[in-house]
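Lab notebook: predicted structure, single chain.

Context: the supervisor wants predicted structures on file for every construct in the current expression panel, including those that have not yet been purified. This is the next one on the list. No modifications to the sequence; it matches the entry in the shared construct table.
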Amino acid sequence: MSALLTVEDGAPVALENAEAGSRIVLVCEHASRRLPQRLGTLGLSPEALESHIAWDPGALAVCRILMQALDATLIYQRFSRLVYDCNRPPDSPSAMPARSEIFDIPGNAGLSAAERLARTEAIYSPFRKGLSELIKTRVANHRPPVIVTLHSFTPIWHGQPRDVEVGILHDSDSRLADAFLKDAARDEDFVTRRNEPYGPQDGVTHTLIEHGLHNGLLNVMIEIRNDLIASKDGQRVLAGYIGDHLGKALADLEP
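Prediction complete. Output recorded below exactly as produced.
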């Protein structure tokens, strides 16, 4: 194991349904709120560690429903975004944030270069390598994947309510986002918008750039307001909504 993770911690990245029939690869960078044993609680309360600053509540559950419905492959990070946010490059301050919304994170304050490197090598590098190798294998087998990253966001941010319910995010390649939004415009079930509540200007498209744009692959990032997927019923409904429009969008883009 790495200098950070113990045998009891297990691997930092998980892969499910590796031999999926569809081209879709679901990516969930913020799937878990687990912390490595050696980091304790990062100085945070149980309340903070259960909140959205530590993970994306409901995101992994929705991914797993989509994985089954679409026969997709799923890759996800098994540790909290507070240890290392795998949707950020190593040189980004938000990769290991010292503060998130209203919470100071004592265990992330004043990290040395060696401590940052240890986290990068233990968490980010295996995740990046795992996704890169999956993509290379698919491309070599003439099955170029479609990269779909899935996240959830809090309905209130710094005291301000958010009325958007589903965000369809993209960087410079908007092909899949455009097709999704075109189809979703016919559906009034959820307030769905482009590049909300975040966009490329917020530094949230790292995975799309690194693994989608750089490989010329179709890609999109989907954000779901987490109050909508707090229950199993909500997770099923939103997975159905996402899966339906994603499937139609991909069908529209087929040559």
